[in-house]
Amino acid sequence: MRLVHWSCPIAGTQFILGMAFLLPHLLVSLLIVLPISAVAQNNGNITVGRSLTATDNSSSWLSPSGDFAFGFRPLNENNDLFLLSIWFAKIPDKTIVWYANGDKPAPRGSKVELTADRGLVLLSPQDEELWKIDTFIGTVAYGVMSNTGNFAVEDSSFNKIWESFRDPADTLLPTQIMEKGGLVSSRQSETNFSKGRYQLRLLQDGNLVLNTINLPTTYANEAYYQSHTAADYAPNLLSPGRQLVFNESGNIYILRENNQQFPLAPGKARSADDFYFRATLNFDGVFTLYSHPRNSGSDGSWTPLWSEPEDICLFSLLASGLGVCVYNNICGPKADGTPMCQPPDYEWK
Ligand SMILES: *[C@@H]1O[C@H](CO)[C@@H](O)[C@H](O)[C@H]1NC(C)=O
Ligand SMILES: *[C@@H]1O[C@H](CO)[C@@H](O)[C@H](O)[C@H]1NC(C)=O
Ligand SMILES: *[C@@H]1O[C@H](CO)[C@@H](O)[C@H](O)[C@H]1NC(C)=O
Ligand SMILES: *[C@@H]1O[C@H](CO)[C@@H](O)[C@H](O)[C@H]1NC(C)=O
Q: Could you tell me the pTM of the whole model?
């Protein structure tokens, strides 16, 4: 096993991993008390004027199949801070795939409302605006929570004014496409959804990169992964990348201008009838594709299928500005490619 000494001041990964098991348990028990009204409305269509309030028993807006839900999730054990999010609603994990206000947790009693003139707005009990969709021209008619996990805000002519798929957080889902200029940001830790220091970006030149930023600035450091699909990548002179595509059978590729595919996560195509997929830029900087059996009762879990970089510990040595473990701890990859940080005297198996 390759061990890399690295010193850099970010939070201790090993402690955060331990904490990660507390929160989901709490969330599962909260979701069991969802009021019937949330289950009854099931065409995914949310009319203007509807709202959700952040409380213990807040309801959510479900997709027609019930696979995804939009609403508030508690952020801490006191249940006084909430995250406006979209999650897998049918699996025990209730895995969050999108969130709006990671940097501004919503106090109890905050409200998200779909309005005609301002779109989707998240307000604190003091009417402080915590988040809203980008400004737009036109009038909102309704919102749609779809079975793909995309929440869209549409005008009366069915034009999409905003979609969560075009404003990703740390996760991409099948059928989601990232255009040039698109950005996926990691969170701080498993349970802290503030913006983290890792980014996945499709640059204007068609190159897909993973890079760190120096928080609180957004200055991008040298990439620690790149797809080499830029127009001017001399050795191949191939057509440049146009989009990052995540298709229904769990394959991820860069679609070039000439429609050829540059596969990122190839593997065999799997049936979307049997599996959920997600690709998450984890808080440790590893971009990982996972699958989860759809009908697995309480036993199912997310299985990593592919990761980039394969060995984040090696990349942390090569790329300047990328530190994985806290000061003096040692980075060693787990079987799935994610790093594990241990004190210098840890005996690696
Ligand atoms: C959603 O509701 C609006 C207004 O009631 C209606 O015009 C539209 O057709 C509905 N859309 C869907 C997808 O059901
Ligand atoms: C939801 O919880 C609040 C207190 O947190 C309570 O006042 C209210 O009656 C509850 N509503 C339902 C429908 O259970
Ligand atoms: C998350 O982490 C950030 C940065 O370390 C911190 O400022 C913030 O208070 C944390 N948020 C929560 C909800 O703990
Ligand atoms: C997804 O992409 C892979 C690789 O190009 C292809 O084999 C598979 O058929 C595609 N799946 C769907 C549902 O289009």
A: 0.81
| pLDDT per position as a tens digit, 49-60 | 999 999 988 899
What residue ranges do the domains of the chain occupy?
A: 44-167, 175-349
Domains 44-167 and 175-349 share a fold: yes
44-167: CATH homologous superfamily? Bulb-type lectin domain (2.90.10.10)
* Both structure tokens of 100: 């709006």
Q: Which ligand is nearest to the CA of 154?
A: 1
24 pLDDT band, cuts 50/70/90, is: very low
CA of 216, nearest ligand number: 3
Residue-averaged pLDDT of the chain = 82
Assigned CATH class of 175-349: mainly beta
Backbone angles phi, psi at 311, to 5 degrees: -130, 90
Report how far ligand 4's centroid is from the alpha carbon of 246 (Å).
Answer: 9
Residue identifier of the C-alpha nearest atom 13 of ligand 3: 192
